[in-house]
Request: fold
Amino acid sequence: LAGMCDRYAKDNTIRRLPLIVIAIVGGLLSFSLFFFLPWPKYTVAEGKNVAIMMVDPLIWLMGALFFMSRSIFSLYIVNQAPILQEINLPEVQAQITSWNQFLESLGSGLGPLISGILLAATGNNYQLVSIVLILLILPGIILWMVAMKWFPQDRQIIKEILSQRAEILKVRAIQKKNVE
Reply:
């Protein structure tokens, strides 16, 4: 998927933003569908028997949904870094990447905690918790959509700053050459 995204956004990086939105929405919906399936009811002995589970079409469907969710969500991962690089100056890219990774790690830890609290509060109502989590993620989706408006201007500002720096370096190189 990374190569496909790179080819798609080769001429215009802003094309990565809709891919990020699609990744979040598509990954979220396909994962949420998982909780609306009628989960099979196995005894403990049946649950330990992999052969029984492997012939259950519902288990295969659940696996396919999980795989699809993770695959679609990978579009987010491969498109986010190039966007962040293009709208940040080189000297702060490491800091931005670090903050981004910190927030993602925090979310990875808080997600299961919030889910657990909501499951306990709703009496293990997976469907309701799934809907609540979708609503909690909705602001992030909206902000990525709004970023489509801000991105071109932010990218232009960064290009102008880098062009000014390049001109200063050229002048310094010429001055240094003239001194020698």
User: Anything to note?
Assistant: The radius of gyration is 23 Å. Residues 114 and 133 are 9 Å apart (CA to CA). The chain is about 85% helix and 0% strand. The chain has a mean pLDDT of 91.
